Amino acid sequence: MSEEYLYAYGVIENEELGIDIEGVEGATRAYTVDHRTLSAITSDIHTMDPEETEENVRAHDEVLQTVMFWDEGRTVVPMQFGMTFKNERPLKNVLRGGRRAFTQALREMDGMVEFGVKLIVDEETTIDRDAVRESTTNRLATVSEQEAQNDLFSDRLVVNRSYLVNRNERSAFDSAVDTITDEYSDSVTVQYTGPWAPYNFVDIEISSQ
Fold first, then answer.
1. Which InterPro entries match (predicted)?
2. How buried is residue 163: exposed, middle or buried, by Cβ count under 10 Å (0-12/13-18/19+)?
3. Domain 112-199: which CATH class?
4. Which end of the chain is more exposed for a tag (fewer CB within 10 A), N or C?
């Protein structure tokens, strides 16, 4: 039998949680490992070095999304893909050492989720990019808490930003995106993704062990 390791998805306030769900590297269950006021969301996997495939990345995100909205919902501080531990002891050491940072992040991210918005200019279309960018970002700023600029990795990208949104204000953010989509439907494609755990708004450095 191959050895089992702990894969960690993120951290929540202390809560005993077990969910049957497809996770990273074919895991079939997500459950919590606790240390004092914190719980790490984990799965058992058979490697210390999970491959960053599209399937594994999607499973990582889907576990976090499910935990975020399970039952009445909860705030999640996500870990980046690949955080794997030999057993519970080093994971609990991370929770112990990062307790203050995790607790602060949970407080700051309370009730928050992340959305991604991209505006892509249709081929052979000419628009005033600066005006579209300013109008879009100003409109979304009024219905979000924070925003983060992502790389404009294509010449056709006008906007590529992540937004931190209070889940109680999601309908207002949805409506703003719908308005932008309708307004520029003849020249721009809007890609709207989420809700995600707030990856772009949490900065806690940890390493797997």
1. GvpL/GvpF (IPR009430)
2. buried
3. alpha beta
4. N
